[in-house]
Amino acid sequence: MENLDTWRSEFLRQIGRGVSNSCNNEYFPFVVLGNKIDKDSNQDRHVSRSSAEQWCCSKGGDAGIIPYFESSAKTGVGVEEGFIKAASLALIEEEQQRSQNYFSIPVNRTIALSDERDSPSKSDCC
Q1: Chain centroid, CA 60 distance in Å
Q2: How many domains does the chain contain in total?
Q3: Nearest to 52 by CA among 76, 28, 41, 36
Q4: Nearest CA among 24, 35, 10 for reference residue 64
Q5: How many CB atoms lie under 10 A from the CB of residue 39?
Q6: Is there a domain that residue 86 lies in?
Q7: Looking at the domain assignment, is residue 53 inside a domain?
């Protein structure tokens, strides 16, 4: 699970969301695929299903649980479902970002109520 933590942290840092401790800043629509379900023994898997599910529950934050799919690169089981979920979450996140940006009001924006060009200059006076 250490590799997942490292990968997730580095990814969030690269996209500029890993800077703050806030859960909202660290949210990204991740999906985790547990591979090698086609193998007969769990010895071929580096991470158990229960460990992966626990990690997904602990890293979801305010957004809920990170979706987890059992998959096999060999047979293709679970791969399409995982990518469809990832795409769906990305589209939802993009729509939420658009709606937040559309209605946001800049906090530090200064608006000049009068234009200096409209006021008489000293040379135009008497």
Answers
A1: 10
A2: 1
A3: 36
A4: 24
A5: 12
A6: yes
A7: yes
Three-state secondary structure call for residue 68: strand
On whether residue 8 sits in a domain, the answer given is: no
Q: Is residue 39 part of a domain?
A: yes
Q: Residue 33's domain is classified under what CATH number?
A: 3.40.50.300
What is the domain range of residue 86? 28-96
pTM score of the predicted model: 0.65
Q: Report the pLDDT value the prediction gives residue 120, as an integer from 0 to 100.
A: 57
pLDDT digits (tens, 9 = 90+) for 14-34: 887 765 444 455 568 889 999
Q: What whole-number distance in Å separates Cα of residue 49 and Cα of residue 34?
A: 7
Distance CA 80, CA 83 (A): 5
> Which amino acid is it at 113?
L
Q: Which of 85, 81, 84, 35 is nearest to 65 (CA)?
A: 85
